[in-house]
Amino acid sequence: MLQTAAGAVLAQRVLLATNAETLGAARPLGRAVLLLRVHQIATEPLDDETVARFAPTREPASDTRTNIFSWRLDAENRLISGGMALWPVGAAARLPRKILDRAIRELRLPLTTRLAHAWQGTAAMTTDALPPVPAPPSAAI
Fold first, then answer.
1. Does the residue 87 lie in any domain?
2. Number of folded domains that form the chain
3. What is the pLDDT of residue 116?
4. Which of 2, 47, 70, 141 would you call most buried, defined as having the most Cβ atoms within 10 angstroms of its Cβ?
5. Domain-located, residue 42
6. How many Cα atoms occupy the beta-carbon half-sphere of 113 within 13 Å?
């Protein structure tokens, strides 16, 4: 049982979901994850005709083969996509345009598609690409 300021917690098992956080209770997971600097962009809203051509059902897509490419649409038809830099020095300045250019090329967007927002953050991936889930305790007989 764990006593907190909000009350007591009683559980047989606990799932610790941390993404890239490896402080406090997540510290032991720090050796099991690779931190990744991810850059994201959002375009200005795309017209309905363009969206209908490459995303008629508005489903997001991801190609995770050798050079990850993924995208999704927000409620206002902004295309959101991202990527990671092989060379991180100066990536925040150069990557948004490269991500936009790739989206224009891969999705055949109008060449006039404009970048509206760019940001970056940290994600994490386990070294074997699987979540570290311990085996359940053996059942008592």
1. yes
2. 1
3. 98
4. 70
5. yes
6. 27
- Residues in contact with 35: Cβ distance below 8 Å, sequence separation at least 6, in sequence order: 20, 122, 123, 124
Question: Could you give the percent of the chain with pLDDT greater than 90?
Answer: 48
SS3 for 36?
A: strand
CATH code (residue 105): 3.30.70
Does 44 score more than 80 pLDDT? Answer: yes
Range of the domain at 104: 34-126
Within the chain, where are the H helices?
48-54, 91-107
C-alpha 64/C-alpha 58 separation (Å) is 19
Query: Using CA atoms, how far apart are residues 138 and 60, in angstroms rounded to an integer?
Result: 40
Q: Around Cβ 21, how many Cβ atoms within 10 Å?
A: 17
Contact 37, 122 (CB under 8 A): yes
Based on its alpha-carbon atoms, the radius of gyration of the chain, rounded to whole angstroms, reads 20
- Give the Å distances, CA to CA, from 110 to 47, 49, 106: 10, 11, 11
Q: What is the DSSP letter of 112?
A: T
Please check whether residue 125 is in contact with residue 68, taking contact to mean a CB–CB distance below 8 angstroms: no
